[in-house]
Amino acid sequence: MGRKFFVGGNFKMNGTIKSIKEIVHNLSTSKLDPDTEVVIAPPSLYLLLARGHLSPNIEVAAQNVFDKPHGAFTGEISVSQLKDSNITWTLLGHSERRTILREQDDFVATKTKAALDGGIGVILCCGESLEEREQGVTTDVVTRQLQAVNKTIGKDGWKNVVIAYEPIWAIGTGKVATTEQAQEVHAAIRKWISEAVSSEVAEQTRIIYGGSVNEKNCRELAKQTDVDGFLVGGASLKPEFVQIINAKA
Ligand code: PEP
């Protein structure tokens, strides 16, 4: 079976009750490609609002989750709380959390394991900085980030993980990776999965691209063999998100 195209919208720390209701209404009433899985990730305060107003064919993701089940962890949200609220996915390892909040590979890995063990799907972000790209270590960086997770989740965990390759230099900068750059890294990630996990897992795992995707560049990117969808930041807050979701239609 082929890999189902997957488009996620990362709202980051943006939105209000009013604007999120508008975005959700627009998505719920637009014609979306039924062959594409759509997940939106509003700020945690608005997860339930989004879930309550969205049509059921669209899923909701948290932007982060903690690795402990409950207790004295001020400011954090647990996997079981997401489950309880019908939030079925979480982003993890976004570069803004890795850089600004100093999240390390091992912490991303333990949170990934906790989410998967609790029945939540993970959109696992990885990607290199501009400096790392210029040093020629992109594949090393990305596979190091993925290997930390591989050590904790094992072969079976990958079926509920979508890998988001997001070069840091392309996030929110308007500098999208070329189709060749994206395809090259996606192919390298798939090769790594094949060697480090298994060829079946490599064939089944969706690898999506994130970094300044918009309605103009999405169609060419979507044609690449190893690009199985997108993680969209800024443009997911705009009506053009619908065109991005329908990039394959
Ligand atoms: C992101 O934050 O995951 C992202 C890809 O942002 P943008 O589309 O705005 O570059």
From TrEMBL:
Q: Its Gene Ontology molecular function terms?
A: triose-phosphate isomerase activity
Highest taxon in the source lineage: Eukaryota
Q: What is its EC number?
A: 5.3.1.1
Q: InterPro entries under this entry?
A: Aldolase_TIM, TIM_sf, TrioseP_Isoase_bac/euk, Triosephosphate_isomerase, Triosephosphate_isomerase_AS
Catalytic reaction list: D-glyceraldehyde 3-phosphate = dihydroxyacetone phosphate
* A Pfam match: TIM
Pathway the protein takes part in: Carbohydrate biosynthesis; gluconeogenesis; Carbohydrate degradation; glycolysis; D-glyceraldehyde 3-phosphate from glycerone phosphate: step 1/1
Which key words are in the record? Gluconeogenesis, Glycolysis, Isomerase
Q: How does it assemble?
A: Homodimer.
Q: Which family does it belong to?
A: Belongs to the triosephosphate isomerase family.
Q: Which HAMAP family match?
A: TIM_B (MF_00147_B)
Q: What is this protein called?
A: Triosephosphate isomerase
Species:
Exophiala sideris
